[in-house]
């Protein structure tokens, strides 16, 4: 794939990942094993609010084809087929879910040195269609996305965004929710490996005149341990401690506090991912 502006979903993704990824409030155990034939088997168990769920998955990678199959405790089967360069500079993704097959969709992504295009169509009689276009370079990009409901003939969404990316920083502005909200974010990395960073994000919703401002960051204590923190203007404080116990095996402990309601018990979550 060419190193162009990336997909529209990449705009603002770095800030979103820093402020949401690994902030857990449940208990999760994941075990993965690998075979010489390119198959990865993963078993996951999750306990949240007294309810236990889980799934078993198999990931098969062969040349330019990736097949991901998961079966959960509700007997739902999710399958994703990803084919790269079936047509030059494209990626095709087909997702199916049984017994709710109508939740499946087909997505085609096209990459160009100065543009990217995605089209997604649902597997229904009157499918929803999503289209996004991004123009620019790996440094500067702007784009838009729209969703169309073929049943009602209405636009379900339209969003526009712009981003500027440098080796040690990234800034983005996204106008979303059909023009009802605007989100601006900035990420700054402090090391070449990008393990330590600071992030700030502000979102304004025009219909309610509500502003949400969040600051956070991640600090590499050593080559095995990361600490993450975030705090917004509504008093929600989140913290994460992540340690690599063994190569590729990671223990994550997360918590969330409401600093404006200290009488409420904080939320805690633990995740253990074992990859022998």
From TrEMBL:
Its main location: membrane. GO terms for molecular function: porin activity; voltage-gated monoatomic anion channel activity. It is found in: Membrane. Pfam families: Porin_3. Keywords: Ion transport, Membrane, Porin, Transmembrane, Transmembrane beta strand, Transport. GO terms for cellular component: mitochondrial outer membrane; pore complex. CDD domains: Porin3_VDAC (cd07306). InterPro entries: Porin_dom_sf, Porin_Euk, Porin_Euk/Tom40. It comes from the Eukaryota. The keyword Glycoprotein does not apply. Coiled coil: none annotated. Belongs to the eukaryotic mitochondrial porin (TC 1.B.8.1) family. This is Voltage-dependent anion-selective channel protein. It comes from Lithospermum erythrorhizon.
